[in-house]
Design goal:
272 residues; alpha+beta; Jelly Rolls; 2 domains; 9-stranded mixed sheet; 4-stranded antiparallel sheet; 15 strands
């Protein structure tokens, strides 16, 4: 290695030129990957990014005249009929969504006085085409829509739900007394978008066998493959952050190592 150090020590110009060349090689020949910035603070809160208010996801076309129950029957004697429907949506790559409002289209069964106590709005990650884990900060229980008596609920979330790019699932469930208020049904869509919607009835009171999330059309007796809903809020593209791959990092460390060797031998030669 003596000939390498002698070559590098001929002048500062040569040394600088070689080091710069190495860095150029790293950027030229090392494939760059791109990482998404982390919007979570150490205290668990989320960085708020300014965005434009918009309809983020619209799944209201192709509405059918059929629907499916998604309800927590508050009357204890009807617990076996407690059920939940959910449908998926997609956030484009390199975007962050701040979901502030959910709109679901539904109907009451006609029983008077057709009123609910509250709603649960829950967001899940996607696991192989089915709902997975709850999304942190996006589990809203016992909240109220703008109008308790309108079965097409407009729901302003108490706090925004921040979601990075990817596939997620959203569920709305009505909390209602069957006696005297009856049932709430979520309207179905005739055309499938992404995966078909899912439904579960853990107590199997409806006798479908769908005690965990299952594809409603194929397995639970639904008439159509999707649900009717909108997500509203703000969308913001964010820049990709370049990250060197393993080869690039190796070259980078070798470069710094050569610099340290040159510096050490020069200092030693000068008696410092």
């Amino acid at each position: 290695m003596r000939w390498i150090s002698n070559l590098f020590m001929k002048s500062y110009i040569i040394t600088s030129f070689v080091i710069c060349s190495i860095f150029v090689a790293v950027l030229s020949f090392s494939q760059l990957t791109f990482a998404q910035p982390d919007f979570d603070r150490s205290d668990g809160s989320t960085v708020v990014v300014p965005m434009e208010i918009d309809v983020l996801w619209d799944q209201t076309e192709n509405a059918s005249d059929t629907d499916i129950v998604s309800q927590d029957f508050i009357d204890v004697i009807f617990d076996t009929f407690d059920s939940r429907a959910a449908d998926d949506f997609l956030i484009p790559e390199a975007f962050l969504w701040k979901v502030e409002t959910v709109k679901v289209f539904g109907t009451f069964d006609g029983a008077a006085p057709d009123s609910l106590q509250s709603l649960d709005v829950v967001f899940y990650t996607d696991e192989g085409g089915l709902p997975g884990n709850l999304v942190n900060g996006c589990n809203f229980v016992n909240i109220l829509p703008v109008d308790l008596n309108d079965p097409s609920f407009l729901i302003n979330l108490p706090t925004p739900c921040f979601l990075r790019s990817g596939t997620y699932w959203m569920s709305v469930r009505a909390n209602m007394l069957f006696l005297p208020n009856g049932q709430w049904f979520w309207n179905e869509n005739t055309v499938q978008t992404l995966s078909p919607f899912v439904w579960e009835n853990p107590g199997d009171g409806f006798g479908t066998g769908c005690t965990t999330f299952s594809y409603a059309l194929a397995e639970c007796g639904a008439d159509f493959p999707d649900l009717s809903f909108q997500l509203m809020g703000e969308e913001q593209p964010f820049p990709n952050v370049p990250v060197l791959n393993t080869f690039g990092l190796i070259i980078l460390f070798i470069s710094f190592g050569l610099v340290l060797v040159i510096y050490y031998r020069k200092m030693k030669k000068n008696g410092l």
